[in-house]
Amino acid sequence: MGPGPINADPRVLRAMSAALVGQYDPVMTGYMTETQELYRRVFRTANDATLLVDGTARAGIEAAMVSLLKPGETVLVPIFGRFGHLLAEIGERVGARVVRLETEWGRVFDPAEIEAALDEHRPRMLAVVHGDTSTTLAQPLQDLGPMCRERDVLFYTDTTASLGGNVFDADGWMLDATTTGLQKCLAGPSGSSPITLSDRAARVIGARRSVEAGIAAEGDAVGAPDRIRSNYFDLAMILDYWGPRRLNHHTEATSMLYAARECARILVEEGVDAAVERHRLHGGAMAAGLAELGLELFGDQAHRMNNVIGVRIPDGVDGDAVRGELLMDYGIEIGTSFGPLNGVVWRVGVMGYNARRDTVLTTLAVLEQVLRRHGVRAGGGVDAALDSYAGAARDSEHASGDDGRGEGTPSELHAEPVT
Amino acid sequence: MGPGPINADPRVLRAMSAALVGQYDPVMTGYMTETQELYRRVFRTANDATLLVDGTARAGIEAAMVSLLKPGETVLVPIFGRFGHLLAEIGERVGARVVRLETEWGRVFDPAEIEAALDEHRPRMLAVVHGDTSTTLAQPLQDLGPMCRERDVLFYTDTTASLGGNVFDADGWMLDATTTGLQKCLAGPSGSSPITLSDRAARVIGARRSVEAGIAAEGDAVGAPDRIRSNYFDLAMILDYWGPRRLNHHTEATSMLYAARECARILVEEGVDAAVERHRLHGGAMAAGLAELGLELFGDQAHRMNNVIGVRIPDGVDGDAVRGELLMDYGIEIGTSFGPLNGVVWRVGVMGYNARRDTVLTTLAVLEQVLRRHGVRAGGGVDAALDSYAGAARDSEHASGDDGRGEGTPSELHAEPVT
């Protein structure tokens, strides 16, 4: 029940134990094509360039940034937590000029702040995380796409912490590049990074395309003028591998492809909307329970991700000792956070395979016991969560006939039980 | 039976279906420590800095080169096949000055040629693949270590194609950096890259150490003067994650760690020497059988890897049609090669879980049938392989009392059945 990685869906674990097949076996290339189509549905996109980067979530981030940004180009990075700092750092490492826009950890940006910075700095790219697990908040993205399109700025987001558990719409929000990982709401292990690129982004990358000397055929450009500063993360080469030419790059991580494919199959079978609603429901119940236990919810709750809840560690309580008891005595893991929030907040995840009623109620029951042993007069968490579930069931009955969500956006609705 | 990836050992597949644990769970950190110790035995090293890079084999290559080489430094790359070209290209991409030393595909370098180039170009690093699967040959490395040490040159090799199936000795050969992958003789899936660094190399990398802004504590250097040009491949950061400080970098790819750990456990249980001998035995039988079928063995057989055999595709035979029939009618995959050898040679792998008597004999029996249908009067391959096995058994009896290998090096011995 931490902020991720979480325990994977057993279907995903079983998928990884399937026998390997050769990388040009028709079964394998068929799986690759199927995986691309599945992730188009997960990202909500028609992008042809939808594929896996073989590495953990930050491998996808670096691949997107090093392939899209030439040295010296400007990238604007709004930072509202640890992972904004990561995007800025990766931008610097790939040789871009990085403009940071910072806000305190616990809030997100008003789109107008970002628009003003776009006008002031005229970047090539806007790079922003969607949900920053370090603070539990999600930056609203839907207004940023048109701003970027008007200014010919590439719009990139990382959705590792949010995808599958929060509303996301790559095409509707006009994203040029989106990256993610499996280990949060997608219910898989870390180690594969699904990514999607708009046609516009694919053209930018295609202009930097080169072919390795050891496999080049006549007419291939072995050294392009703006060659990408990484071979492993050269998305032009990786697109040649995933595309009809099937030009060898790395050897695809077959077992991780099986995992990524199964994660998306599970999500598409459930329905992406239904999965988001499930995260909203159980995340809301958890937040209600934690608040009732007397824990102060951290950050702007109107913009909290559905799938992770931050609470301030009560004064006088040893946060690591509580976490250690939860893990060693009950087998339940929760997290603290990074940087200014390290030792200040606990983060409780309700995501992927763990976004369930039994996990929420058990965690609250156990946490109450551990808090009491640490001198906190806690109680009522389970009851508050059960009330939250009952309220959601009533809302759902009343709302029958519409889409079941009422008029609010999910991010407004999910906060209701805790206000 | 291709040049890799090959089908994994079922134990490795089962290991990947184990439940995930949190990245700071004592079980997980215990597995990390155990995996480091196992790979010290596989690489034959006492290097403290022995760990996994989360990506395919070329992720390990890029991590080593980008972390060890500063922009503008010179790297000497002897090239005897596709993967030498890859090292050179990655060297260029990380900003190094690359000096290429090329030889025709099908031979390796005399150490004196490399020594002369070291003196002429005075590089910071010598980067050479151990076994280049594209040509099936292995470069002898044992003489190069002292040459590098005398000249204060960092000595790096990639052993993706060779480790576990050919004699290798990281410390005895004075290597500063060695990288590998799981998908060849280690009998696992692609997607994790074990790597080991000498103390000297670890110091070079440590001098470039920085800490991410989002997780820095007081006194941490957030931006080092020679900061490594990649975050994902920053081995200083990855060492902080694998070391006692356990400073968060990426989220370890847990299932791939389980796979890498199981690959090494299997190898260490068998004994690394015994595994090399097994590859020599079955590779030798396969080579004898292929030669008897009338196929010309490709390249300098005195320096062939134990685990992969190249043969020239007979004149007038459609190499891809033969490979297609083997795959679709018999479920047996073999490879062709890259660049100048694409469509010119077939490559037959005998490695990892596939280095067995039944796989060798079945492949030869089936290949004979397919060759005949393509008009090649082939025969006797199975008999030659059986003779090779019988000869090896007699040698083994005669040699009882010594180490069973006679006086020759494995690479000399393995060629015997085909001369």
Unreliable spans of chain A are 402-419
> How confident is the prediction overall: mean pLDDT of chain A?
93
Q: Assembly type of the shown chains? A: homodimer
Biggest interchain interface, per-side counts: A-B, 70 and 71 residues
Strand element count of chain A: 11
One letter per element, helices H and strands E, the order of chain A comes to HHEHEHEHEEEHEEEHHHHEHEHHH
Distance between the termini of chain A: 23 Å
Helix coverage percent of residues of chain A? 40-55%
> Tell me, what is the CATH class of the largest domain in chain A?
Alpha Beta
How much of the sequence of chain A is in beta strands?
Answer: 5-15%
Assigned CATH superfamily of the largest domain in chain A: Type I PLP-dependent aspartate aminotransferase-like (Major domain)
Description:
The structure is a homodimer of 419-residue chains. The first copy, chain A, is of the alpha/beta class and 419 residues long. Chain A folds into two domains: 10-267, 3-Layer(aba) Sandwich (Aspartate Aminotransferase, domain 2); 272-418, Aspartate Aminotransferase, domain 1. The first copy, chain A, contains 14 helices and eleven strands. Chain A has helices spanning 10-16, 26-43, 57-68, 82-93, 111-121, 144-150, 199-206, 235-242, 254-270, 272-292, 319-330, 357-373, 381-398, 410-413; strands spanning 49-53, 74-79, 97-102, 125-129, 131-132, 137-138, 154-158, 177-179, 193-197, 308-312, 345-349. In chain A, the strands form three sheets. A seven-stranded mixed beta sheet of chain A has the order 1-9-8-7-4-2-3, with helices on both faces. Chain A has a two-stranded antiparallel ribbon with strand order 5-6. In chain A, helix 1 (10-16) runs antiparallel to helix 9 (254-270), helix 2 (26-43) crosses helix 9 (254-270) and helix 11 (319-330) packs across helix 12. The longest helix of chain A is centred in the C-terminal third of the chain and has 21 residues, at 272-292. Chain A is globular. The model of chain A is unreliable at 402-419 (pLDDT under 50). At the A-B interface, helix 1, helix 3, helix 4 and helix 9 of A face helix 1, helix 3, helix 4 and helix 9 of B.
